[in-house]
Write a structure and sequence with these properties.
Helix content is 41%, strand content 14%. It is an alpha/beta fold. The chain has a six-stranded mixed β-sheet, covered by helices on one side. The longest helix is centred in the C-terminal third of the chain and has 16 residues.
């Protein structure tokens, strides 16, 4: 993951610009010049430094020297309003820096700053959309292969795309693939989670606001649609968007204009809309929760993403991909799945889809002690799907098979309790062997014994 960008400024002049960087998904850490020493002592890692060139000259030179002493290889971008064109030059401290002459126009200044950061931080575009992470490109699934074919057709079109699928199926990943593989790839991709933003703030987030337009509006703020100008606005969970906001989104799509909250100026925006939802929009329309006219505006193209349980052939390639990615980010060795772990993943139905698989593999990579990842490294909810057991071949005292009536109406808890009882019976009440056979830790086994009121007899010893 790309380290944050360090911003050093004593002025509120550039605050809207720095807020916009965060809105675009870039991690930043903003400090005043007086706090630089505290940050330097911690020797935190940053990807670049942005400095307000309006600081007084002695203080500015002092800061640059300090920066070069602590972070000698980090690129520095200096911001100033002096009417000259952007250029690269030696700073007075003798270090190469990128000097930006800003115009005062927030959108133009944001574009200048982003272009500059892309020049000095080659991995910046990778941070915004890591195309190598879009494993769907390598998917063996026929269903995902068809979707990739459609993406290749749609990527350069102007029409809106509605992406439908369960939570965790990768809707935002597909949206990024549409954006970064198409003609708008050099422009911003701005994601807006319509379900996460309170209804009272959603309009301000989408369209921006003027200073003083409401309580707490201490600065003018550029909205998401303006930030996405010439690029893509991704409306995630659009099915949860309130009806009044839906009407305003529809007007933007029809006119190509927005109006900031508290403002009166019409602002032209050129934005491609990608929308995603885990809800059945047609049912939402029937219930009066979604506008039919907006549905037809965002539904020029439709992509329906299948859940992971419907494409089991993707589970192991995805799992190994996530393991390799996590290892690369941690700077550690790559690890592989054991045969038992592979079977464990293939048995799981993945209610959380790709997101659940990604989180489970990250955990497994951290917990696995050696180069091979076994079942014990995965969470309880995955491990405790116990298969039909067979007696270990090295069993010293063969035990008769425990007969159990097969019934389809047993609850999961009843099945789990019975599996533990069977394992203890088969393995002569040896907790260590039973835990290993059930692919759970010994601590988890003891917790389950207490939970289900199972009394374990002492293990038989020779």
């Amino acid at each position: 993951m790309l380290s944050p960008i360090l911003i050093i400024s004593d002025s509120a002049e550039y605050q809207p610009l720095f807020i916009a960087l965060n809105d675009l998904g870039l991690r930043t850490e903003q400090i005043s010049s007086g706090n630089l020493g505290l940050v330097a002592e911690g020797k935190k890692r940053f990807s670049a430094i942005v400095i307000d060139w309006g600081l007084v000259v002695p203080r500015r030179l002092e800061i640059l020297k300090q920066l070069r002493r602590v972070w000698p290889d980090l690129p520095v971008v200096a911001l100033a309003r002096n009417g000259s064109s952007p250029r690269r030059r030696k700073s007075q401290s003798g270090n190469l820096a990128e000097h930006l002459s800003l115009t005062g126009n927030e959108k133009e200044d944001l574009a200048l700053l982003l272009d500059s950061l892309r020049r000095v931080v080659p991995d910046l575009r990778t941070e915004v959309a890591t195309l190598s992470d879009l494993l769907f490109i390598k998917t063996p699934s026929n269903k995902m292969g068809e979707i990739l074919t459609l993406i290749d057709i749609m990527k350069d079109e102007f029409g809106s795309v509605l992406i439908q699928g369960e939570t965790g199926t990768g809707k935002e990943v597909i949206a990024k693939l549409l954006h970064y593989s198409g003609r708008r790839h050099a422009a911003p991709f701005v994601a807006i989670n319509c379900a996460a933003i309170p209804e009272t703030l959603l309009e301000s987030e989408l369209f921006g606001h003027e200073k003083g337009s409401f309580t707490g509006a201490t600065e003018r703020r550029i909205g998401k649609f303006e930030l996405a100008h010439n690029g893509t606005a991704f409306l995630d969970e659009i099915g949860d968007m309130p009806l009044p906001t839906q009407a305003k989104i529809l007007r933007v799509l029809e006119t190509g204009e927005i109006e900031r909250v508290g403002g009166h100026q019409k602002i032209q925006v050129d934005v491609r809309i990608l929308a995603a939802t885990n809800k059945k929009i047609l049912q939402q329309i029937e219930r009066g929760l979604f506008r039919q006219d907006l549905y037809y505006r965002i539904n020029t193209f439709t992509l329906n993403l299948p859940p992971l349980r419907d494409r089991p052939e993707d589970v192991l390639p995805l799992a190994q991909h996530f393991l390799d990615r996590h290892a690369r980010r941690r700077g550690g060795p790559k690890k592989r799945l054991s045969a038992e772990a592979e079977q464990l993943l293939l048995r799981h139905d993945w209610p959380g889809n790709v997101r659940e698989l990604r989180n489970a593999t990250e955990r497994a990579l951290v917990l696995a002690a050696g180069p091979m990842i076994g079942p014990e490294a995965f969470p309880d909810e995955i491990r405790e799907k116990v298969p039909i057991m067979s007696v270990p071949s090295d069993q010293a005292h063969p035990v008769a098979h425990v007969e159990r009536a097969a019934t389809p109406i047993l609850s999961l808890k009843e099945l789990e309790r019975q599996a533990i009882v069977d394992a203890l019976a088969l393995l002569e009440n040896n907790a260590t062997k039973a835990a290993r056979h059930l692919s759970i830790s010994k601590a988890t086994l003891f917790r389950k014994l207490k939970q289900y009121g199972i009394v374990r007899q002492p293990a038989i010893r020779n």
